[in-house]
Amino acid sequence: xxxxxxxxxxxxxxxxxxxxxxxxxxxxxxxxxxxxxxxxxxxxxxxxxxxxxxxxxxxxxxxxxxxxxxxxxxxxxxxxxxxxxxxxxxxxxxxxxxxxxxxxxxxxxxxxxxxxxxxxxxxxxxxxxxxxxxxxxxxxxxxxxxxxxxxxxxxxxxxxxxxxxxxxxxxxxxxxxxxxxxxxxxxxxxxxxxxxxxxxxxxxxxxxxxxxxxxxxxxxxxxxxxxxxxxxxxxxxxxxxxxxxxxxxxxxxxxxxxxxxxxxxxxxxxxxxxxxxxxxxxxxxxxxxxxxxxxxxxxxxxxxxxxxxxxxxxxxxxxxxxxxxxxxxxxxxxxxxxxxxxxxxxxxxxxxxxxxxxxxxxxxxxxxx
Length: 369
Fold this sequence. Notes:
Elements: H1 6-11, H2 21-32, H3 38-49, H4 63-68, E1 73-80, E2 93-102, E3 107-112, E4 118-119, E5 130-131, H5 135-138, H6 141-152, E6 158-163, H7 167-173, E7 185-188, E8 199-202, E9 209-212, E10 219-221, H8 226-234, H9 242-261, H10 264-267, H11 270-277, E11 280-282, H12 286-295, E12 303-307, E13 311-315, E14 318-322, H13 325-338, H14 361-367
Parallel strand pairs: 1-6, 3-12
Antiparallel strand pairs: 1-2, 2-3, 4-5, 6-11, 7-8, 8-9, 9-10, 13-14
Helix pairs in contact: 2-12, 3-11, 7-8, 8-9
């Protein structure tokens, strides 16, 4: 495919979709497929393997040995919202999460890297500054995994690339979800604001909501379909808690999906599993998923979430998040500790070759902290 210009990528940037569904994928892919009856094994194997796509991960550890010995493993979870995963325009990975799973400690840690983190993309330093969510746009899945692995100086054993646009299908496949809204707000999926067609009205403390296809004539509903769940979890601008509030609502949607999908009936449902496999690309084989599900299953009961402590800076009218050296080192220390690895210096401060870029003085000051 011919390389798009930087401006073209911005010009047709897709609207943001629900990125929190990635937590649901963690549970299903890593822990949900367990104790499968022999009669369904072959069918499920073929379905899940449709999501398999290898990657050239540098310095990859011996994953077979790790799983056999029940050692901690790492998975890079990336969420993109560009419809089909195989379309020519890849979009950005607005969700970037390093997951460590420790079966002996029975814990799973989710470390989020903000999508607006300032980087110099390896091989594209002339375009500095860029945001870390565009590494995948410029390169490919292998280079994205390798860049983030080197950036944090943490080995990455597996990756999972998730199409967040698949949320609607997943909610519809489980028969819809019932959620009490934590606040009152109106939202249109068409405009990402209060006005427009396909408007929803949610009410604090109530699972009842209203919907108007034309944006004017509302009807009352008690269960969210996929489109309603997408609207409920997308809104950010009217939430006094901003992104934190949106994340909270995303978790509510995920929890509701899990309640509906935790039964063997759903795990063995071909349409449901096909929906997952068509919206995920991963280098995890079905055999590895089964082994992880059997040996690492209890790690799902103790899940902790962490995120990078970064500084917000403005450059040419664009907002970025900047990792200071000290905070980046803390993040590396935590991730390596979760993987039971020895202490090591964090990776390059801007991911790419810093000598090839000119860093503004005020940003340099933040980097050096």
